[in-house]
Automatic annotation (TrEMBL):
This is DUF466 domain-containing protein. InterPro entries: Sel_put.
């Protein structure tokens, strides 16, 4: 591979990382890493259960703002 191709691949990977962090897509990955590091014997929620829990927690918090629908 050429140097230009390597730079473009690196740039694309950094952009992908930034977008995943910005949109919250990486939250489940962070949850899995944290749980495996701090309590390896604890059962993990699957992605769907994690997202439901995350949404319910966010909507129950009055600091997050009012959601009408």
């Amino acid at each position: 591979m050429t140097v230009t191709t390597l730079r473009l691949r690196h740039l694309a990977s950094r952009i992908r990382w930034y977008v995943r962090e910005l949109t919250g897509e990486s939250a489940y990955d962070h949850y899995v890493t944290h749980t495996r590091t701090h309590t390896p014997e604890a059962p993990l929620m699957d992605r769907r259960a994690f997202e439901r829990h995350r949404t319910a927690t966010r909507e129950a918090d009055p600091r997050e703002g009012f959601r009408c629908c």
